[in-house]
Design brief:
- This protein is 0% helix and 48% strand.
- It has strands at residues 2-5, 8-10, 16-22, 31-37, 44-49, 56-58, 66-71, 81-86, 95-102, 111-114, 116-120.
- Strands 1, 2, 3, 4, 5, 6, 7, 8, 9, 10 and 11 form an eleven-stranded mixed β-sheet that branches.
Length: 122
């Protein structure tokens, strides 16, 4: 399973760094996506990164503000982490953020983590 963490309350213009960790699966083997779900809205993709980390994709609202990365250096694959650095946060970024894993691009996401709440408010 996956676990997203790092959310919290931040003022507009502030930054947060979310982490996605796993238990029971080797994170290195999966492409990871970050999603968010605002209150009373559908869950939407924010960013994704390939298994190797060589390919990243962002939705337009995240471009230039968010950076997805992964640390595949641990010998224990289950300890590796995927990050979402979020800068210049806006109130409309307020949502629960989830990470998910899939074997490769184009396949369904197989594993989902419990979300972490990000609140951007003054």
């Amino acid at each position: 399973q996956l676990q997203a963490s790092g959310g919290g309350l931040v003022q507009p213009g502030g930054s947060l760094k979310l982490s996605c960790t796993a238990s029971g699966i080797a994170v290195n083997d999966y492409a990871i996506g970050w999603f968010h779900q605002a209150p009373e809205k559908e869950r939407k993709g924010v960013s994704r990164i390939s298994n190797s980390g060589s390919s990243t994709v962002y939705v337009d609202s995240a471009k230039g503000r968010f950076t997805i990365s992964r640390d595949n250096t641990s010998r224990d694959n289950t300890r590796n982490t995927v990050y979402l650095q979020m800068n210049s946060l806006k109130p409309e970024d307020t949502a629960v953020y989830y990470c998910a894993a899939r074997s490769s691009s184009g396949t369904p996401y197989q594993y989902w983590g419990q979300g972490t709440l990000v609140t951007v408010s003054s």
